[in-house]
Amino acid sequence: MNFSKEPKCGANTRWIPPILPPPELKAEALRDYLLLKFQRPGRTRLMPDGFEDFGPSIREIAGYVHPLMFDTEIENIDYGIAGSCFLVHYRGQLFVITANHCLTAENGNDVRIALDPVTKSFLPLKQLHRGQSIPPNQDYADLAIFEAAPEIMEAKEQQRLHALQLDSLKNPEMKIKVDAKLLVPGFPKCLNEVDYDRFVIHTQRYLPSGDYCGSAGRPGIHRMAFHELEQITWPDGMSGSPVYLVENHPEAHFFGLLGMLIRAHRYRKIAEFIGADVIFAALDKIIDSPRE
Prior knowledge:
Layout: E1 12-13, H1 27-35, E2 44-46, H2 58-63, E3 65-74, E4 77-90, E5 93-98, E6 111-112, E7 114-116, E8 121-122, E9 125-130, E10 144-148, H3 155-159, E11 164-165, E12 181-183, E13 193-195, E14 200-202, E15 204-205, E16 209-215, E17 221-226, E18 242-248, E19 253-264, E20 270-275, H4 276-288
């Protein structure tokens, strides 16, 4: 399969019920309400679907997540899908974040992030950084970060590029109440496949919700419980998905980044994720490291 043979990237997406503006607001007051600048540390205001001109919505923050594709270099089997990843913009740079176990020791150069079903373009990637730990093989090091190179894309492709703005979501202390509401957009394997007979790439984003369950008792690792997992057999393939916190405050809805999913149970609804503090520390280290 060659991407120039026009495989089609589907956009079937299952959403939770949308966040709506307060019903008592009249049309003439709605714009003023949406323009109000509410501030909460480490949080960004969440807008209703259809009002993305004023800020990110659930639909938009789910759209930062992409299936993790690979160039297989196998005849007639050009691409494969294994895992999820998400795009972030932090301190002036663009990165792709995923779980390290979604990559093999050799295939970092084979990763493909399909950005646009219209242009069939891939995001140019530069250096890969893999998590490390002492002692080795700690779960919090199950992290892989690609530096991206959007500057070599065409102008129209750059305009279609959307990434999670991380600077405003950085919070030195992760104080989250148990039962806090979470969203985990990703691409489970059972809903995503490559049809090699028809040269079609089937992708379907899935957006389950859940509750925060507290620390997993290991450094940098936290637990959550999904509410329901309809339409899928289990969340295999959702490793590398961002874990979002969604809060409803009197003035508005807000969201934050809690971390990245690394493990889900096959038969139960329990899952584990790396905390956002680990991700921020890794990004800071990459940015602050001297360049050769």
